[in-house]
Q: What sequence folds into this?
């Protein structure tokens, strides 16, 4: 990978780690000092490809490869207008073709392929779908606002519960301090046994109820996405039809030979005498050596009763 450097002064992060790089629509990287000098009048050509650029079009570079930043910004701009959803199409194939068209447009703009024709396609799409674009923008904006409101309400709800817990803890401490103060006064003024007095006030401390936070009187107003799913729902409820319960039936093997012993009889019949035991790792993984032994026995007796008939 090429070293990240300014296309005008050729300074790099290796020479000056404090350099701040920015990029424009052409994808070439420039440092902040060169941008100040080359675009003093607000606009000018790119030092490398001579494409006309504006000073306010430069943005901070997030990735080492500036083409990635260009693609991210291009995709954001395109998706602001190409914002149709699957509900806007009659079939899934039409929607997939629409998504393919978006990727072709982004690829052409990022790679500078047929830029003029691609921009004409974008302008034509905007003219033909002006109402749908505005409608989907408003829908997206409403969903973002509803989500922001929900997040704010949840923050308030969490803060309320935290404050309620702190108030309850402070109230409990106050009650315990009051009991301790009464205990000291009783020990100083009373003639009763000190142990009885201490035990009495110890029980009083234990009887102080642990108060729980009260629920908020105003419920949170949950809104919905455009799909109809509430923000507090993981998915749409699905009706489940109950069927007959599962009944296990052991698998019957057609060996065409003598019958095999059961897996529980392998030890008593001596099949496991010369076979190693499972390791702890194998047992943890669910492996049983008896199962393998039974398979070997089945292979040995399989097809012993078959006879050649001479027929093809």
A:
């Amino acid at each position: 990978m090429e070293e990240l450097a300014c296309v005008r002064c050729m300074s790099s992060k290796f020479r000056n780690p404090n350099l701040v790089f920015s990029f424009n629509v052409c994808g070439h990287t420039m440092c902040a000092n060169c941008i100040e000098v080359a675009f003093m009048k607000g606009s000018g050509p790119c030092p490398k490809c001579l494409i006309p650029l504006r000073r306010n079009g430069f943005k901070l570079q997030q990735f080492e490869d500036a083409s990635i930043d260009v693609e991210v910004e291009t995709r954001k701009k395109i998706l602001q207008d190409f914002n149709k959803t699957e509900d806007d199409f009659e079939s899934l194939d039409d929607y997939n073709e629409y998504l393919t068209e978006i990727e072709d447009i982004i690829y052409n703009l990022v790679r500078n392929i047929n830029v003029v024709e691609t921009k004409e396609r974008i302008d034509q799409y905007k003219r033909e779908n002006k109402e749908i674009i505005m409608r989907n923008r408003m829908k997206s904006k409403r969903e973002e606002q509803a989500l922001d409101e929900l997040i704010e309400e949840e923050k308030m709800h969490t803060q309320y519960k935290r404050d309620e817990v702190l108030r309850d803890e402070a109230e409990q401490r106050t009650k315990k301090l009051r009991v301790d103060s009464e205990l000291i006064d009783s020990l100083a003024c009373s003639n009763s046994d000190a142990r009885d007095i201490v035990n009495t006030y110890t029980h009083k401390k234990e009887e102080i109820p642990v108060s729980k936070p009260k629920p908020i009187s105003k419920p949170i107003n949950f809104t919905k996405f455009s799909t109809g799913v509430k923000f507090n729902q993981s998915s749409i409820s699905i009706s489940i039809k109950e069927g007959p319960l599962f009944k296990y039936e052991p698998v019957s093997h057609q060996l065409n030979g003598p019958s095999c012993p059961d897996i529980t009889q392998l030890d008593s019949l001596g099949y496991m005498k010369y076979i190693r035991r499972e390791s702890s790792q194998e047992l943890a993984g669910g492996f049983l050596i008896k199962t393998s032994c039974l398979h070997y026995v089945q292979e040995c007796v399989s097809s012993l009763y078959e006879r050649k008939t001479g027929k093809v």
